[in-house]
Specification:
- With about 300 residues, this protein is mainly alpha-helical.
- It has two domains: about 10-95, DNA polymerase, domain 1; about 120-245, Intergrase catalytic core (hpI Integrase, Chain A, Orthogonal Bundle), CATH 1.10.443.
- Helices cover about 55% and strands about 5% of the residues.
- The protein has helices at about 10-20, 25-45, 55-70, 75-90, 120-125, 135-150, 155, 185-205, 225-240, 245-260, 265-270, 280-295; strands spanning about 165, 170-175, 180-185.
- It has a three-stranded antiparallel beta sheet with strand order 1-2-3, with no helix packed on it.
- α1 (about 10-20) runs antiparallel to α2 (about 25-45).
- The N and C termini lie far apart (about 65 Å).
């Protein structure tokens, strides 16, 4: 066994590089980095420097420490999952003999039900781009694609021109952990992508005609996720919406509206690239809330 005593700081740095190699988003890696920094600081106060010296009792004490600080349930869940992920990776890499986080159980908490834009709000939002400009045509194509496919913003900006099959109305998407899936684009998305490719992309790519990126920024090169979020925020304001529409709220809208339309949860799981149906619980809760409201207003619920 390739077992060595190594500083927790070095192991943590190696683990974060591993997450980057697994195609985790920059935001996710940063969240893990912050969470593990808290764990490292705790171990330092306990005068523990080697990963092999950490025991299950230490992790349980750390769990109580997070409770005493007063972190929210969501933050505690993230911090403990980060610790478990680190030690699971160390075990897989044969860097530790025993995994102290093997028995760690994170407490269940009910996730806050995030707002979902209505179909009427999404329809109004999609009409905001100025179609007299190249950027406006691009934005309409991007927002239609986000809504019709439910892809993550990192997956959207990572799309290459060769990933889209206009004739078949499909796109290859590379998600978390470089997992590949094929998603249907929908007729509106196909229509606007086709127009973007014919009218806007040739101008936006400028002196980079051989660039593989599907979506270009105004200054050339692949558009950045932060730029996409900024664009959506501006269109939300222009539409006069109470809630800002983000790339992820369009993803939630895609799933929720499909569920309301009768789609099976397994179909939505495949479309969104979730590893389990458990990830769809927030969308199912939304539709159940709608059902409860409708039931109260109907004859059987009175």
């Amino acid at each position: 066994m390739n077992f060595v005593k190594k500083d927790v700081v070095v192991f943590t740095s190696d683990y974060l590089k591993h997450l980057e190699a697994k195609n985790y988003s920059q935001k996710s890696v940063k969240s893990y980095e912050i969470a593990l920094k808290c764990f490292k600081n705790y171990l330092c106060k306990q005068k523990i420097q080697q990963a092999s010296d950490v025991t299950y009792d230490h992790i349980c004490a750390y769990q109580r420490h997070l409770q005493d600080i007063g972190y929210t349930d969501a933050t505690k869940d993230l911090y403990l999952r980060s610790v478990r992920g680190l030690f699971n990776w160390l075990e897989d890499m044969n860097r530790i003999f025993l995994n102290p986080a093997q028995r760690l159980k994170t407490p269940y908490y009910r996730r806050r039900l995030l707002p979902v834009p209505s179909e009427k709000e999404v329809k109004l939002f999609l009409k905001q781009p100025d179609l007299a400009t190249d950027a406006g045509i691009r934005d309409r194509a991007m927002t239609e694609t986000l809504y019709s496919t439910g892809v993550r913003v990192s997956e959207l900006v990572g799309m290459n021109i060769g990933h889209v099959n206009i004739e078949q109305g499909r796109a290859r998407i590379f998600g978390k952990g470089s997992k590949e899936r094929v998603v249907p684009l929908g007729k509106h998305s196909v229509l606007w992508i086709k127009r973007y490719l014919n009218e806007a992309r040739p101008h936006l790519c400028g002196k980079q005609p051989n660039e593989r990126a599907l979506w270009f920024g105004e200054r050339g090169g692949r558009i950045h996720p932060a730029r996409v979020a900024h664009i959506l925020k501006a269109y939300s304001k222009n539409a006069g919406l109470a809630q800002v529409i983000t790339p992820h709220s369009l993803r939630r809208a895609c799933a929720t509206h499909m569920l309301r339309g009768g789609a099976h949860p397994v179909q939505i799981q495949i479309l969104l690239g979730h590893s389990s149906l458990k990830s769809l619980s927030q969308y199912l809760r939304t539709t159940i809330a709608d059902l409860h409201k409708m039931h109260k207003g109907s004859r059987p619920g009175r």
